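To: structure desk
From: M.T.
Subject: fold request, one chain
Message: Could you run this one when you get a chance? Sequence is below, nothing fancy, just the single chain.
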Amino acid sequence: MTVVDRPVGSSTAPKRNEPQSMIARMTCILDAFDSRTAQLTLEDLELRTGLPRSTVHRILDQLIRLEWVDRAPLGYRLGRRSRGVDAAPGHDRIRAAAAPVLHRLALQTGTVAHLTVLDGCDSIYLDKIGGRLAAALPTRVGGRRPAHANAGGKAMLAGLPGESVDGLFEAGLRTCTDRTIADLDVLHRELGRIRGRDGFATERGESVPGVACVGAAVRGPEGPVAGISLCGTDRTVDPGRLGRLVAAAAGEITSGLYPPPGDPARRARFR
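Reply: Done. Structure tokens follow.
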């Protein structure tokens, strides 16, 4: 279960400058849903987007007709077309196994927990779980970031053979900030360090300025199948402590997805 515990403020809160184009307004509304399972009321969307309530309501009606948004018991949630990433085989099973672990970690550490998978040289976000800080992070379910610029992505890359990494980045390394790794040789050295410290990765300001993360890979029989990460501010993230937590959590999710031979869960799954 994904929980976003941002406080809901007054409807008289100051508005941001309203986007002028319809596409910009629709994007603003969709980006307000910062997790796959978030359910937001009309008031929540008004406050998060800074758009007038009448504008939000009118655009929601169109998004519902186009299946980008669905009506939900508590308001609105992302629709089928917004969750296009769901169609990939195995993603639902990975998300179901990871969700309770990530929820526990987010509550325990006060960080934002992400679940990602590799798609070429990008990380695709399958889930995002957290509280107040989640609104400040420009990540969203279904969104992409360069894998080499985030901790979960680097942890997955560290689980690949070197030649596979070369193939993914033959066109070069895109940068998000001035701290993003931009050289392939530097990336290989970083991946070697990750392999040498029990597989957990760190990044500080490489994807988003002022944000630090630790990550680890969920491993299948043939290599990494997902990455998990915990993100916070530069001041609040302790790589050593959170690294141990995220590595243990990745192992827990791996065991849930791929129980060892003789494990009752494995027998039940293949019965």
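Reply (cont.): The chain has two domains: 22-78, 85-257. Let me know if you need anything else for the meeting.
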